[in-house]
Structures are given as C-alpha cells and as structure tokens.
Amino acid sequence: xxxxxxxxxxxxxxxxxxxxxxxxxxxxxxxxxxxxxxxxxxxxxxxxxxxxxxxxxxxxxxxxxxxxxxxxxxxxxxxxxxxxxxxxxxxxxxxxxxxxxxxxxxxxxxxxxxxxxxxxxxxxxxxxxxxxxxxxxxxxxxxxxxxxxxxxxxxxxxxxxxxxxxxxxxxxxxxxxxxxxxxxxxxxxxxxxxxxxxxxxxxxxxxxxxxxxxxxxxxxxxxxxxxxxxxxxxxxxxxxxxxxxxxxxxxxxxxxxxxxxxxxxxxxxxxxxxxxxxxxxxxxxxxxxxxxxxxxxxxxxxxxxxxxxxxxxxxxxxxxxxxxxxxxxxxxxxxxxxxxxxxxxxxxxxxxxxxxxxxxxxxxxxxxxxxxxxxxx
Length: 377
Known about the structure:
Number of strands: 11
CATH class: Alpha Beta
CATH architecture: Alpha-Beta Barrel
Strand order of the largest sheet: 1-2-3-4-7-8-9-11
CATH topology: TIM Barrel
CATH superfamily: Luciferase-like domain
Radius of gyration: 20 Å
Distance between the termini: 12 Å
Largest sheet: 8 strands, parallel, barrel
Order of helices and strands: EHHEHHEHEHEEEHEHEHHHHEHEHH
Shape: globular
Number of helices: 15
Structural class: alpha/beta
Strand content: 15-25%
Number of domains: 1
C-alpha cells in the first residue's frame, strides 16, 4: 500500500509557525489565485488530499497580529472554489458540529461531494474552535454533551444522505421529513476524520471515524494505545477495526542540502514570536484535550521549538532526512497517511517537496503517484 500524503492546507497566512517573518513570505490568503496555484501544484506532484482546518475564534491578539489562523477562510467555501480547478485531489474540510445544524451540512456536504465526483470528506470537531467567548456558543455545552451532539449530527446526516429523509429523535435534534439536495455519491456517507483523545472523543471516533488524526508530537506508545482503544471500540460497534486509518501531522522544512536545511530551520526558530507562543499555548491547553495531554507528557518544551511547528512532528532536513522522517511515521508509528505543513507554503515549496522527496519514497516502495493507483484517502 502507498502511504497517503496530503497538505495541511494554508487557509490562513500562518498555520503552525508562530512567526511574523515566516508569515510575511506567504501569499495573500484572501486572493483566490493564491489557492488555485497551491491546490493545482499539490495535485500535480501527487498529493492525495488537502486537509482544511478551521477556527471560529482567535488564539489572542498577538497571534492574530502575525496572521496565525486569522483571518481564516471557511473550509467548505474554499473547497467549493477549488473543486472546479482540480480533477483528482480530495478535500477534507473541518466541521465544528456545535456551530451548525445537521441539515445545513447535509446540503452543503452533499453538494460538495456530488459536484466533486466523490472527492469530499469531513474532519469532525465537537468543540468551539477557540470561540469560547461567544455568548451562547458551544462552550455553553459540556464536553461530553458536545460529543453526544456530534454523534446525533452524524446519524442525521447518514440518514439523509442514504434516503433523502430523516426520522430522528434525540437529545439534541428532533427531525422528521424529506429534504431537497443532491444525493451523495458515497454510500452511506462521505469520509469522516476525527481526532478525539478523551473518553468521549475515542468513543465517537471508534463508532464513526474512517481515519484518526494524531498530532505529530504524540509519543509512539501513546499513539499505539489510543489507536488500539479506538479500534476496540469500533469492533464493539460492529465495524471492522482495521478499517480505521491513522494519519499524523508533520511540519516539513526542506532544502537541497543538510547545511541549507539547518540554516533554514534555524532562521525559522530565531524568528519565532515568544509572546505569541505563550498566547497560543494558553489557548490550546484550555480548549483541546488532545494537545493538552501531549504537552503535559512531554514536559517543559522550549518555546521556540513549539513556535516552529506547533503541535506537528518536526521533520526538517535535506531530501533524505525528510524521507527518513516520513518513513519512520509509517514503519514505527503505523501511519497510513501523513498531513504535511510547510512553514512557507508558496507553490515553489510544494513543488520542491514533490521533486526532491517523493522520488525517494517511491524508490523505497513507500509511495506511488496517484495516477498509477487512483487518488485516495
């Protein structure tokens, strides 16, 4: 099997590198030509998917001032704009179930899936997306209740996509009747990604997820424990345990030679805004238990190291070193896919990854171009 590689999509000026200098090297995220160039380059080099994260609120004023996830283009809107200018690459758009009504997403998702020819999937998140200060928002619902709502959300969508009608009575939704909208080309529902680490999150993932997203900083034994637990839950729910794939997140800084890569990596590290890193950590640890667990397990991390890659696994180096890092995630961590992020995400950086790293992975038998096997998850 070929490892699935995707881009952790830059739908904000800065995604995981907390640096104004790095962000300044990136293009205008509010210009559609920027996104067309990025998406088409990803498809050309042979990435399988684009993973579009989302946030509904800022980490804080300092991170916003350097463009870290602010402004952020809403994933389904961006996917709708990029589907017509691509042919094969797939789109995973983040869905915060607490901010939407399921019938809204039945129609949004059904349209994206149908018009893309089955190239759409969703990353389901139950939390507030850092907008916990919005009165009446998801923060008003308890953690486990948000996952209960997410479960009902998926059940409603699944019914609607399968039959065009919903007959559902739950704690959060009471919906009966037929709806208008395109039927999905995937039966019974589109692809679902989840990243829950809590008891409720693992239970949700085991029952519904096709892919588990793990932050790159997750220690190997912790990852194996979490994945095994989720697969046990899946089997208990009557699902094939091995049907759940594992995807990790890695931040890649690539240059032609080791010396050039070391210089580039050091420039990134020295450019980090330490005040913004503190603001980021306070926000993340207060909102996402997945990352809170990781930071607590790793102890006191250097601020510049965190600022360089956020929650991703750091893979900085020359082509062989980057290929080695990806190969380790496959061989040692059992990953089926790796979502890469690039500090500077201009198309030429994406093209460099395709030109220098993918041939090495292909020679090792770890990856093959999707044109030889079809694009997939």
